[in-house]
């Protein structure tokens, strides 16, 4: 029953946004929303309160008045259900206050967004992060998925001195469940993500620590790209390599355009003392530099203006 109400209210919300310029249709839709059996959970799942709050500021007095009446009714429903006990969920959906439910700012999606932060621990604020507790997740009944949990658990085997075996099993179950939700059980992407995580866990110890302490949740971990999973040192090395490749490509481009640039400033090279061994052109430039001891002859550096070839003799 509740699912049908969510679907119907969601449909009405879309219609309200679609017919924003037609007053009669808006009034009928607002009446239809008021006839629905709406509770606090439906408000959170559909975001209808924010849509109605926006219409309450409409320039048309009839629409604004009808929307304000409905908004007051929805606020009373939200307050009435505020004392209901919240059921914990794996993705830790953030609880939405009645103020946020009726904010005039429209969300991108009607459902509440999941937070990436681990829940705060009660008690001593100075307690080590290793004592952070995740929600208990049962191991999957599917033998293939159970095997994946065992493989993930084996990655954390060396950390059993710092963390209990029960905690490591629970972390492994969280990661496997997130992989299953994101890619489907035992699919090619599911297997590829496991191999990617295994490789990065072995190379990046800080990544393992963030996962074990609960600072990085499984549903966030499985969506991270390979670059985001790298350690800081490896990421910096990759950045420097990409910069070197870019600079090299830029230098090659400058070398290939050297003759055109020289002509643009009035320098026309007819021929040089050296012939390029790559393209056979005689249009070369050269300069000398003392690279050895003073009693040795100078080294000649030659640059071809037709191609990127450079050499010394």
From TrEMBL:
<feature type="region of interest" description="Disordered">
    <location>
        <begin position="81"/>
        <end position="139"/>
    </location>
</feature>
<keyword id="KW-0539">Nucleus</keyword>
<keyword id="KW-0479">Metal-binding</keyword>
<dbReference type="Pfam" id="PF01096">
    <property type="entry name" value="Zn_ribbon_TFIIS"/>
</dbReference>
<feature type="compositionally biased region" description="Polar residues">
    <location>
        <begin position="91"/>
        <end position="116"/>
    </location>
</feature>
<feature type="domain" description="TFIIS central">
    <location>
        <begin position="144"/>
        <end position="257"/>
    </location>
</feature>
<dbReference type="GO" id="GO:0005634">
    <property type="term" value="C:nucleus"/>
</dbReference>
<dbReference type="GO" id="GO:0006351">
    <property type="term" value="P:DNA-templated transcription"/>
</dbReference>
<protein>
    <recommendedName>
        <fullName>Transcription elongation factor S-II</fullName>
    </recommendedName>
</protein>
<keyword id="KW-0863">Zinc-finger</keyword>
<dbReference type="Pfam" id="PF08711">
    <property type="entry name" value="Med26"/>
</dbReference>
<feature type="domain" description="TFIIS N-terminal">
    <location>
        <begin position="4"/>
        <end position="81"/>
    </location>
</feature>
<dbReference type="InterPro" id="IPR035100">
    <property type="entry name" value="TF_IIS-typ"/>
</dbReference>
<dbReference type="Pfam" id="PF07500">
    <property type="entry name" value="TFIIS_M"/>
</dbReference>
<feature type="domain" description="TFIIS-type">
    <location>
        <begin position="272"/>
        <end position="312"/>
    </location>
</feature>
<dbReference type="InterPro" id="IPR017923">
    <property type="entry name" value="TFIIS_N"/>
</dbReference>
<dbReference type="GO" id="GO:0003676">
    <property type="term" value="F:nucleic acid binding"/>
</dbReference>
<dbReference type="InterPro" id="IPR035441">
    <property type="entry name" value="TFIIS/LEDGF_dom_sf"/>
</dbReference>
<dbReference type="InterPro" id="IPR003618">
    <property type="entry name" value="TFIIS_cen_dom"/>
</dbReference>
<dbReference type="InterPro" id="IPR036575">
    <property type="entry name" value="TFIIS_cen_dom_sf"/>
</dbReference>
<dbReference type="InterPro" id="IPR001222">
    <property type="entry name" value="Znf_TFIIS"/>
</dbReference>
<dbReference type="GO" id="GO:0008270">
    <property type="term" value="F:zinc ion binding"/>
</dbReference>
<keyword id="KW-0862">Zinc</keyword>
């Amino acid at each position: 029953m509740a699912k049908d109400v969510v679907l119907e209210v969601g449909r009405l919300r879309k219609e309200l946004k679609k017919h924003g310029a037609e007053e009669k249709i808006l009034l009928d839709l607002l009446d239809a929303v008021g006839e629905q059996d709406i509770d606090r959970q439906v408000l959170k799942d559909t975001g209808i309160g924010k849509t109605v709050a926006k219409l309450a500021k409409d320039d048309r007095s009839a629409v604004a008045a009808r929307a304000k009446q409905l908004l007051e009714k929805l606020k009373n429903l939200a307050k009435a259900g505020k004392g209901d006990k919240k059921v914990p969920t794996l993705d830790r959906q953030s609880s939405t206050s009645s103020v946020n439910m009726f904010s005039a700012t429209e969300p991108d999606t009607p459902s509440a967004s999941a937070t990436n932060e681990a829940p705060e621990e009660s008690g001593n604020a100075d307690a080590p992060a290793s004592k952070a507790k995740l929600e208990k997740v049962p191991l999957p009944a599917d033998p293939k998925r159970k095997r994946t949990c065992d493989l993930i658990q084996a990655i954390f085997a060396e950390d059993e001195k710092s963390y209990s075996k029960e905690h490591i099993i629970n972390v492994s179950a969280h990661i496997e469940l997130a992989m299953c939700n994101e890619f489907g059980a035992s699919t090619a992407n599911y297997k590829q993500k496991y191999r990617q995580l295994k490789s990065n866990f072995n190379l990046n110890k800080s990544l393992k620590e963030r996962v074990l302490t609960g600072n990085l949740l499984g549903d966030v971990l499985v969506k991270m790209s390979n670059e985001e999973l790298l350690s800081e040192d490896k990421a910096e090395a990759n950045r420097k390599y990409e910069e070197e490749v870019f600079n090299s490509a830029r230098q090659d481009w400058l070398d290939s355009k050297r003759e055109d640039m020289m002509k643009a400033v009035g320098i026309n090279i007819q021929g040089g003392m050296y012939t390029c061994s790559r393209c056979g052109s005689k249009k070369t430039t050269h300069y000398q530099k003392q690279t050895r001891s003073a009693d040795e002859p100078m080294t000649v550096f030659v640059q071809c203006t037709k191609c990127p070839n450079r050499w010394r003799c």
